[in-house]
């Protein structure tokens, strides 16, 4: 940049005072200050845009390297899974004694512990009956009577047994 010292600025001010005149000098100085400020802001904006574009390019490069690494990991994991599945199929077929080697297709591994999924069964509830809000499991757990009992039945229930004669 241009190196301005105090002596050079004083010389430029004296020449401007003589050429422009004392009545128009403050307005011209203000206009020059505004223009210099705009120029500095424009240069700062250009620098920021260049820095953003450089950072964006770096991020794109990093993204591509991470994607490549993830793709490589995915490929190695899938090949290991395929190899392990084929080994398990072979071991299973030898253990079962079928004598035939199972194919290495995915899903060919037989799981004897797999249970079939039960199909939907309608609960056959009578929706017209009025039901209490307290669930049956709660009543049973806390000893709440589920059915109404007459007074005579209750007395008979708790009457001591008669001695045998």
UniProtKB/TrEMBL annotation:
One of its GO terms (biological process) is protein transport by the Tat complex. InterPro entries: TatA/B/E, TatB. Keywords: Cell inner membrane, Cell membrane, Membrane, Protein transport, Translocation, Transmembrane, Transmembrane helix, Transport. Its main location: membrane. Residues 81-110, 131-165 are annotated as: Disordered. It holds the Pfam family TatA_B_E. It is found in: Cell membrane; Membrane. It is a single-pass membrane protein. Residues 156-165 have a biased composition (Basic residues). Belongs to the TatB family. This is Sec-independent protein translocase protein TatB. The gene is tatB.
């Amino acid at each position: 940049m241009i190196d301005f010292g105090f002596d050079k600025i004083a010389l430029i001010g004296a020449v401007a005072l003589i050429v422009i005149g004392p009545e128009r000098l403050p307005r011209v100085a203000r206009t020059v200050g505004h223009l210099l400020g705009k120029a500095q802001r424009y240069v700062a904006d250009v620098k920021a845009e260049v820095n953003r574009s450089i950072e964006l390019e770096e991020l794109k490069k990093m993204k591509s390297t991470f994607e490549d690494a993830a793709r490589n990991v995915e490929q190695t994991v899938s090949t290991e899974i395929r190899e392990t599945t084929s080994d398990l199929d072979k071991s299973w077929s030898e253990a079962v004694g079928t004598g035939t080697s199972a194919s290495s297709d995915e899903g060919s591994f037989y799981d004897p512990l797999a249970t079939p999924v039960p199909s939907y069964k309608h609960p056959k509830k009578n929706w017209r009956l009025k039901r209490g809000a307290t669930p049956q499991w709660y009543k049973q757990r806390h000893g709440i009577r589920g059915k109404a009992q007459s007074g005579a039945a209750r007395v008979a229930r708790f009457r001591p047994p008669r001695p045998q004669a």
